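USER:
Working in pairs, take the chain set out below, taking as long as you need, and write a paragraph about the fold.
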Amino acid sequence: MTTSTRGAAKAPAVLVLEDGRIFRGRAYGAVGETFGEAVFSTGMTGYQETLTDPSYHRQVVVMTAPHVGNTGVNDEDPESSRIWVAGYVVRDPARVPSNWRSRRSLDEELVKQGIVGISGIDTRALTRHLRERGAMRVGIFSGETWVGIRDEALLAKVKSQPQMKGANLSAEVATKEAYVVPAIGEKKFTVAAVDLGIKGMTPHRMAERGIEVHVLPATATVEDVYAVDPDGVFFSNGPGDPATADHAVSVMQGVLERKTPLFGICFGNQILGRALGFGTYKLKYGHRGINQPVQDRTTGKVEITAHNHGFAVDAPLDKVSETAYGRAEVSHVCLNDNVVEGLQLLDQPAFSVQYHPEAAAGPHDAAYLFDRFVSLMEAERA
């Protein structure tokens, strides 16, 4: 990514998809060039949490909501220490933010962090194109530098970029050093959380339930996990292709062998799938947003949930599977397309979901999953 922090309000910008489709608009955020995988998010709110979610590393996010930035940027809602999206695409950016917590405009924050974006394009047409053709590589070029450059030259730059399939990215976004999030109130349990791209709200949700969370790097070994004497082990969300995450799969298998209570979210769900012997595959355009319907098949309850994933587990929906760690079944399913949204083992305390129950920026339908994790640890202790 090449950027400049010069004012971008009037600068021209062009978005080039790898299949040759081109959209022309105005610069938004920093001026320069950026590349990534074009994906769309259907959330009407929560753009600050989206931008700072490490799972969006190397992705250019298209917002389907037409008006973005109206509440500005505050210092309370980020999910990590920085913006992780590779680029940002909006139709109609707010001219003036208005919210009592706002500290600066979204445009100012994008400029500050060097995030190249584009505004003033038909994001509805772009989203429909991605739904029909699938997520693909994209480049955004803004500023006078690119005026007069032939479209074919820009397209060649896009096609020279790496694809998301086969990308091993967790270690690029995870913490380098272990740290502890203390329990809020009385400490009841200790959890070792393997950071594959964890969102800040996730250990907070556990801390609210009396859990002291030891967040470990993606490179942590089984020995590192058990060095904290955990009552449970957690595997977080994160970016990239789960087919490349052999180390995380090996660590999880070590946890399954010890039958320690285990909970995985998003990338952690895909890691559990691989650990159990299932395959994973890339979705055509993925699930991203905070309005995705999922059914908990163990209760029949339907939840509206927050998603950010472009890969999924290939597990049978219609039967219980025999694995090296006992019987396993699909516990949750997306009602839009029947994608596997959760797994659980029937013979030991381990489960996972493909979505984000920490609910930043909402909704809160799936918060009970943290209570389910607590129940597993309580039962194991008893």
